[in-house]
Design goal:
CATH topology of chain A: Rossmann fold
CATH architecture of chain A: 3-Layer(aba) Sandwich
Strand order of the largest sheet of chain A: 2-1-3-4-9-8-7-5-6
Number of domains of chain A: 1
CATH class of chain A: Alpha Beta
Number of helices of chain A: 7
Helix content of chain A: 10-25%
Largest sheet of chain A: 9 strands, mixed
Oligomer: homotetramer
Chain lengths: 231, 231, 231, 231
């Protein structure tokens, strides 16, 4: 049983009726609903004490999902430090959509994580460019999303360890939409789809990717990581 | 002065009037014309003795460009062996378009190098996804080709060391169009654009990429590669 | 239940009393013995018809282990083709020690796979350089082998996708001893230890690595790999 | 003419007679002396205003070398921000020895950059594991340093884009001693050798590596990096 914590900024949904109409219980609940009976799922949000990410919660989390957008700066540095440390220890991390600009993700990548975007509601196709990857299990050749915000290259991240998805956008752009990284013992997956006003996380194929990514990002035992003076 | 050999199958141009109309002197001459005064350029073609790739020619070649399509099987294994060895020794190799199925490229990659395609004359945009790469020097954000054959993912090659271009196609596909590899001491660049019935190699941006790729693929000195029994 | 086939050249053991003393039932049986009750294990050897690697055997194999040394050239090209195809389809492959020069491994790598060596019976330490990797599960910081043949750099293989072990040798050399690759859908692990006159495959930590590597290399479902003309 | 800035903490040399005996003018001057007439070399040190790394200095620097050890925390965050931005824009960065724990390097890597060490004055051999890399130009198979501080694995950094050197230590350890990365447009090389009490930077082979690394890390033009809203 993989222990999953779904973190959401949870502001748009309380501030904006259009967003509330799409995600009445918050984006975190939609994501939590995508994880099936094989997961032990909790949620945490920005306005909880310590953003809901106490030491205890992190200690008992195998994989953390992260959705944020308008309030990246409101995340306390001390909490970012703590989550960062846990990722290096081995906790999996799945960063979604506008989370590319989260303090946590920028710190793990070491780059600006900038990109181009256009909120035009055009069609997106996420092509599987690595059909042998476990995150692609059970998918078709591509996932089609009829209405999305466009994200375009260049995407200022380190070259991914493996690239699983590349998006095609109706308006003429491409984007590396599914990027795998390891930092310390932690597995990190950046997954582009998701927006507060399109019901992306209700799409069955996207939900399948979330489950696959959680499985992929779950910690393994590994061997000791001892640092410092050696005799 | 970089010594470049442009190799071309040179059959379509002699067999098909439509191709001859686009490339009257052969694709090799169009490519050779793209390389400026800084290169010492030769050409070689399939129907020459030893396909024009004698030991002497290879010994004195810094970078080899390769275009083939309908006659991959007519390339003698002994010549493939010889070129393969030279790449491992350090000769640069630029494989163009349908050269993805060349014996030489498949041998260097170790995979099937299969892909999807559609000859529909649609528009292609080659997005630079690695703007810091020297092969992108002097380019805009993307290169647009008004009429091309589509190549689509999945592309069965090893994960590139660096991915420089990703193509967007009007018909809805994407493709990793500029892939960098090293094998032994040799630098290898696979570059998708090019077709016998579209004048791709007359495009100024494409010609710039060819020059950049030759510079990137040129051998460096390195250190000794000695193998076998050590005392 | 992972279906494993252990392939061994099985010539040294029948030709040389010193080898027979170390591996009386053949190296393949020692390796098979390292795989525990969670595996469905078969063995196959060079001198069986089709080297024991019929279409049926390969179809029903999840992970193939390969040990060869003096008779690489005796492996039929048609069998190499068949195994190569199965790896690209997704069968895992673990190449051991002198298998670096197997036709199959050279074909998958696209390089010479040459290295340096010295048969001096010195001590080797395999350091885990990627402690978060599942192939390192349950190991200490390093595995020490009191008597081994030395393999030294340079090792002419493509840069590994991930490097799990680096060996230190008493005589002054280093070697990338645990190299992960993907080719097509297949996962490939090259693991250096092993020799016909040292009882390497009786070492408990080495046996643990073999089990870990089999688990890591097992196929996942992935998504369709369809190639060719697209409508 | 490549514009190089050599940055040094420059405290050990002023506080400790043993260090001053090895590097009487400071480590920065020894490094600067290794860069030949093809470079336009400046130095900068911690105790200068803005640590000598003003906007003007960084703007006109192609490649920055960094040596620090006991005073990493004394480097102002604002200067780290500025240097970080310049690296992403394309300035090359060469991080030396104990600089692995510099704020700047940890920020670029996104990991702890921890390692093991032992100050025992034992012998180190830096093996070239990538003999085709330009940083290895003109070297022998390995560089031997008779007396060094040991650094051992695990080294908590992201998997390098390319690994050029692996060190062997007399005491039984190994280390990935020459690691290449790209972050944004900037090329980064971590190079292990160097210590305040051993005259490492007087070694001719080490000096050759420094020159090679400066050439490798020099910026190229690339193509535009434009981010934000697209029309």
């Amino acid at each position: 049983m993989v222990a999953v914590t779904v973190w959401n900024e949870f502001r748009h949904e309380r501030e904006d009726d259009d967003v509330a109409a799409v995600y009445p219980d918050g984006i975190h609940e939609a994501i939590a609903g995508a994880l099936d009976a094989d997961h032990d799922v909790r949620t945490a949000t920005l306005d909880e004490p310590e953003h809901g990410l106490t030491e205890g919660v992190l200690e008992s989390t195998d994989v953390l999902l992260w959705w944020g957008h308008e309030a990246h700066d409101a995340v306390a540095d001390a909490v970012v430090d703590r989550v960062h440390d846990r990722v290096l220890e081995g906790m999996g991390l799945i960063v979604l959509h506008s989370g590319h600009y989260a303090k946590l993700f920028k710190r793990l990548m070491g780059t600006s994580c900038s990109l181009q975007y256009r909120e035009d509601g055009g069609t997106e196709r996420l092509w599987v460019v690595d059909p042998g990857h476990p995150i692609a299990d059970g998918l078709d050749e591509y996932i089609e999303l009829p209405e999305t915000e466009m994200y375009g290259e260049p995407f200022d991240v380190p070259e991914p360890d493996r690239l699983v998805f590349t998006s095609w956008f109706e308006g003429g752009e491409v984007f590396r939409s599914g990027c795998c990284y390891r930092r310390g013992n932690g597995r990190i997956f950046y997954f582009r789809p998701g927006h507060e006003t399109y019901p992306i996380y209700e799409n069955e194929a996207i939900r399948r990717v979330l489950r696959n990514a959680v499985a992929w990002a779950s910690p393994t035992d590994g061997s000791p990581r001892t640092f410092g003076a050696r005799e």
